[in-house]
Amino acid sequence: MKPMTLVPFTSADTARLAEALDQAVADGATPGGVIALGTLGEPPRFLKAGRIADELGDTAPGPDTVYDIASLTKVVATWPLVCQAFDADVLSRTAPVRDFLPAIDGPAPSGEATIEQLLTHTAGLKASTRLDHYRGTETPLHELLCREPLEAEPGSHRYINRGYILLGLALAHAHGRPLDELARALWDDLGMTTTTYGPVARGPQVAPTEQRIPGAPRIWGTPHDDNAALLGGVAGHAGTFSTARDLARYAEYLIDPATRLHGWIRASTLPFAPIEPGLDRGLSWICAPGNVAYHHGFTGTSLYLAPTTGRYLTICTNAVYHGEARKKIAPLRALALKTITAT
Fold it and tell me: What mean pLDDT is reported for the chain?
């Protein structure tokens, strides 16, 4: 692993990102958004564009606007809690997840997946996750998930939410505390005072997301992810709300060699399973050239880390406000990745 050599963002970097965010708003990709970018030891810079939502008039987003960060929950809540559990010998990287859940009698194919396989999306679990299909049964959720047959041979990469649902359940059982309490203790320790599991109260500081039915209210303050909503807003794969300011604070913590999780983010940028040419899955994070780690959230959020150059960048938008977020803000995300990997 390369030693850290700080490479600050240039004024040209900032200008290009600001222009791309403005263009995303102008193109109708998102009502507005906030980018936080910085280098270790320096205050973050915040780039803002557009407005939070039509429902809030001309109210502009800012560093403290609360966004549903969707699958960033995997790396903002579940991944760091699992890493802490490894350090405390509460979880074992190579042990099956069923070992850390209430006892299950008989075969449980998906329960044989190791914690490492779940973290790296290589367990071969069923790709489709519809917790609503489990309604009407008295069988505990962990048992229902563990008894599901595998859909593929373990080893190959396939992005799957149910693995992180299982990780969240395992963390709660192994610690004897609810997942949201574990996450709250972590975030408080890091000074992430506005990061929380949903639901959160509607208000001008919270960005609404999708309108599922024409004429009906938008999803606002409750998780956009259906499975997280069915779990009361608290899940290992989604359900977290945060701000650009808090995510910048978290990113700086991870890339700081003096902090407890820095070793884990270094380890997590090592390729574990190929995704596509040039991209691999590490421990939870996507690994890009230059020892860069990043992850996206379905609602239109992203977090990028470059531990060897001391750079970080986060995108907070509610691009799902206008439908499919991934395609709409793809140019902005591509520029963010290109910018943070530059040396």
Answer: 96
Q: How far apart are the first and last CA of the chain?
A: 16
pLDDT at 1 exceeding the cut of 70: no
- Residue 301: both structure tokens together: 């959020």
Compute the distance between CA of residue 96 and CA of residue 148 in angstroms, rounded to an integer: 15
What confidence tens digit (pLDDT) does each residue in 170-210 have?
999 999 999 999 999 999 999 999 999 999 999 999 999 99
Q: Which amino acid is at 93?
A: R
Strands of 96-244 (E only): list them: 196-197, 240-242
In the chain the domains, ranked by start, together with CATH numbers, are 11-72+180-341 (3.40.710.10), 79-177 (1.20.58)
Three-state DSSP at 293 gives strand
Paired tokens of 67: 């966004």
Contact by Cβ (8 Å): 54, 71: no
DSSP string, 74-107: IIIIIHHHHHHHHHTTSS-TTSBGGGGSS---S-
Q: What secondary structure letter does DSSP report for 136?
A: T
CA distances from 96 to 11, 91, 152, 221 (A): 48, 10, 17, 35
Structure tokens at 117: 């396989």
Give the containing element (helix H, strand E) for 205. Answer: none
What is the rounded CA–CA span in Å between residue 313 and residue 293?
Answer: 11
Residues 6+ apart with CB under 8 A from 301: 67, 68, 69, 70, 72, 314, 315, 316, 317
For residue 305 the two structure tokens come to: 């880390």
